[in-house]
Amino acid sequence: MNPHASTVAAIASAPGVGAVSLIRVSGPDAVAISAQATRCKGGLENAAERYATLCKVVNVQGEVIDEVLATVFRGTRSFTGEEVVELACHGGVLVTRRVLERLLQCGARSADPGEFSRRAFENGKLDLTQAEGIMDLISAQTDLAMRAAHEQMQGKLGDQSEVLRESLIGVVAHVEAFIDFPDEDIDPDTGAAMLKRIDEVLSGIDQMLSTAEQGRILREGVRTVICGEPNVGKSSLLNGLLGYERAIVSDVEGTTRDTVEEVVNIQGIPLRLIDTAGVRDSEDKIEQQGIIRSEKQIELADLIIEVVDGSKPGKRLLTEEQVAGRKHVLVINKKDLGLDAAWKDSDGVQISCSSDSAITDADSLTLLGNRIADILLLSENAWGGHAVAINARHQECLNRGKVALSAAREGLESRVGAEFAALDLRDALDAVGEVAGRVDTEEIFDAIFGAFCIGK
Ligand SMILES: Nc1nc2c(ncn2[C@@H]2O[C@H](COP(=O)(O)OP(=O)(O)OP(=O)(O)O)[C@@H](O)[C@H]2O)c(=O)[nH]1
Ligand SMILES: [Mg+2]
Questions:
Q1: 291 Cα to the center of ligand 1, angstroms
Q2: pTM as predicted
Q3: pLDDT tens digit sequence for 324-340
Q4: Which of 45, 107, 200, 386 could share a disulfide with 35, CB 3.0–4.6 Å?
């Protein structure tokens, strides 16, 4: 616990004009400072906790700045785990700023970015993953991203890493006790049992690591490139998925020259759709530039939507080698014109998608959405299995933990020496602990002395 000496204040609502603005004050003098800045019956210092109290914010001359509703949270029963006052004032930019200035005049310090969450973390109200979950929730653009953020705020990710960390503490305790107290009759638990415990943690780490890609997709969106030969209907598909005419569509081959990018929500998954110039041999310099960009986009994509004109024999733009190991879906467009025999046995998704609503087949676009969700392992069914989706920071910690733990395992197995294994195990423990922001050696001592009763 890190009790903070200072009391901080900040505007908690979004900048700009609104009906109400919220100003938060947190720290040991939150109530005293707010009471000094306000006038109300009985004084804010005596206000009932967790009830809205009507009061006036006044300047040093006693002139009213605004009438506000103040809510007092005493002791540790607040978001930050400190004394907190929340002032709901009128939502003008100037009035909000004046109320904040008055609180600063009365002794509060302007809060740093994220300082309220930081205090909540340091006061043990949240672990790091929960604090990150709040940020994810605020920036979520789709329902699925919101759901994942909620799970994280509930502490599911922190709990998972905590289970692994606790197992590791047990392992470290055994190995360190064996080193530190060689005369005690401590079973080093090396051998098979120890390795089995390490393997269990390693597989737990792998399981968490396997959610990294879903996590990145939910947070950042899937880079999805729509590619194909000219005139197959790439821009029509972009427009169809977006629901409005974003890209120019025409029957002239080579209509799209530059890439066009838009975010679309497909079954709760944010796709960053990139429409590209149709790829063909062209003499036109501008078109050539567009084609080079298309090829670059295909290389960078998380997901490739390759479109072909199903009404013509034609061939695919990409070879099997080019799509091997990539997330790829083949879209056979213009099925309304009748499917050419060349595509009859293909497992591509058949669609019709045009600015002419009589031609567009909405159901076929839904089927395409399902296929995309399946490919991304983010369909409702697949998602059900994972409560969490880790972010890049968690991934880095877990990878570091995995390397250290694998080294410890090797050391124990080849009996190089318990000391080296213990160092690696400590590194692994720290790395896994970093996921939830817990790095505490005190606990290891507790585990050693508690579990082995070394009390001489
Ligand atoms: N009948 C029918 N026509 C379609 C369909 N999809 C697209 N078209 C037509 O095909 C032509 C080309 O469509 P675009 O979407 O511009 O094709 P594109 O692949 O973006 O073409 P480029 O940008 O030139 O590479 C247009 O005349 C569209 O109206 C479809 O499902 N059915
Ligand atoms: Mg186009």
A1: 17
A2: 0.73
A3: 989 999 999 999 999 99
A4: 45
